[in-house]
Amino acid sequence: MAEFAMDLNDEQKEVRDWLHGFAADVIRPAAAEWDEREETPWPVIQEASKLGIYSLDFYAQQFFDPTGLGIPMTMEELFWGDAGIALSIVGTGLAAVGVLANGTEEQIGTWIPQMYGDVNDVKVAAFCSSEPDAGSDVAAMRTRAVYDEAKDEWVLNGTKTWATNGGIANVHVVVASIDPELGSKGHASFIVPPNTPGLSQGQKFKKHGIRASHTAEVVLENVRVPGSCLLGGKDKLDERLARAREKAKKGGERVKNAAMATFEASRPAVGAMAVGTARAAYEEALEYAKTREQFGRPIIDNQGVAFQLADMRTQIDAARLLVWRASWMGTTGKKFENAEGSMSKLFASETAKKVTAQAIQILGGNGYTREYPVERMHRDAAIYTIFEGTSEIQRLVIARTLSGMPIR
Ligand SMILES: Cc1cc2nc3c(=O)[nH]c(=O)nc-3n(C[C@H](O)[C@H](O)[C@H](O)COP(=O)(O)OP(=O)(O)OC[C@H]3O[C@@H](n4cnc5c(N)ncnc54)[C@H](O)[C@@H]3O)c2cc1C
């Protein structure tokens, strides 16, 4: 089991520098254009595919890095380039992880390659869990999956919302309820293969930030998928449901919304995205403060500016340490005794919001315009306190974990 280390090893440094080069040379110069266009940056994804950055191999290598630092390092560098474009590149990975974590070997081998496509025909994938009436309250999910035993098919009906790559994905991973009485314990995940009848894109959202990333509703109307599309398989599902029903009967209680606490291991990845955006804004602000002169001297000569930069850098480093710790814990199987995954996401995302706002302030009028990137970074940063569990939900998970109390 890898010891916690704050130094990247030589191989990781090489990968980090390679990613940084891609972020600086390809992502950053394209950022403003795709933000304005509010469209998926297919040419950039294709370029990432050519280099091997957009591929299952690369993502799996980072995901299974035994030190736990592969994913945070990757996220930080790509999101340093630009959050909207980076999300378009890693969004597929988030869906792939759903299959890697719950799928059988056959499902992994069949579906993940189709999520990425190939260099000449790149594809994306979507993970669809949120619904109009089930955001933080995942247990309120209404999308239903009903088994048609005669045909060995599952029939899915419902409306998903906020799905990254929803409707434009080659493969959709859809979470649906099989037994609503069991809350989130009655949920299961399904692969919806390419061109399956009944799946369509609903509204595409016009967003505040990460505008290069496609976000849309996904409508499921009598979507029939083969039995083999249930992730993990039916036997495993039946066993899990039987256990949950037994537990619910014995305890005489409605099964609690466990989903709130199940993302400890994946949350540090979002924290790392936030660190990338925060670092990018801090670097812009530092450079600007050293070169912009007012009253005959660089503005960084004023403590009021310099101390802000000192705080920004301190908070970014603290956020990265929390992210790395949680990611290392997740990879090495340490128990999240104090909701360390949620802590890392909470702190890093709030830091990104604060630091990007401070960067605008340091750039003055220029910071408020689209001539400079910090305005975009500030809009982008707002997403980190919302998706993959809002800051309030992180606090709820942390407070419940620390206290053992059912805090509401
Ligand atoms: C750009 C974008 C991309 C996304 N991508 C995906 C995706 O790919 N797949 C997917 O499934 N989902 C995705 N989401 C959905 C995202 O995870 C949800 O938006 C998020 O979980 C919050 O749900 P909600 O928007 O319904 O807010 P709500 O749950 O309605 O929350 C509204 C407010 O109430 C607060 N609140 C709610 N409950 C409590 C409570 N118990 N205590 C204190 N405060 C509370 C929240 O913190 C928030 O401030 C995405 C969202 C966005 C905006």
Automatic annotation (TrEMBL):
Acyl-CoA dehydrogenase/oxidase C-terminal domain sequence ranges: 258-402
All copies of domain Acyl-CoA oxidase/dehydrogenase middle, residue ranges: 126-223
Domain (Acyl-CoA dehydrogenase/oxidase N-terminal): residue spans on this chain: 9-115
Cofactor or coenzyme needed: FAD
InterPro entries: Acyl-CoA_DH_CS, Acyl-CoA_Oxase/DH_mid-dom, Acyl-CoA_Oxase/DH_mid-dom_sf, AcylCo_DH-like_C, AcylCo_DH/oxidase_C, AcylCoA_DH/ox_N, AcylCoA_DH/ox_N_sf, AcylCoA_DH/oxidase_NM_dom_sf
Keywords recorded for this protein, A-Z: FAD, Flavoprotein, Oxidoreductase
Pfam family, one: Acyl-CoA_dh_M
Family, similarity comment: Belongs to the acyl-CoA dehydrogenase family.
Name of this chain's protein: Acyl-CoA dehydrogenase family protein
